[in-house]
Amino acid sequence: MSKRSTKRGHTLDGDRLHVKAVLPPALQSLLQPTLQRRPCCLLCGGPHQAVGVFVPTYPERWGFPAGFRAGCTYGVCQRCLARPDTQDRVEAALWDDRQKQRQAPWN
After folding, report:
1. Nearest residue to 91 via CA among 76, 106, 104, 78
2. Any idea where the domains of the chain sit in the sequence?
3. Four-residue CA torsion sign, 38, 43, 49, 52
4. Which of 30, 39, 65, 70 would bridge with 75, disulfide CB 3.0–4.6 Å?
């Protein structure tokens, strides 16, 4: 099947949509090790289909110092990616993980 582009410049290869995002250098440096590590799905533990990037709008609410640009990458499987509430579930899972980190005995 031939490749074609959407109106927004995304590439369609058969039924797969490939989106190229322009990320700041700091997030690019986070993304590369994540792609090499091939993490399991953050939500169900299955094999990942996509890698996401989360950057909190208000890092202070997540426990980071004011002015600190925080972000993380994660894997998501095809099944979880197709759910309409994926973004909310990802943010909740990351929030829970962040709270556990803040309460860890080494902090």
Report:
1. 76
2. 21-103
3. negative
4. 39
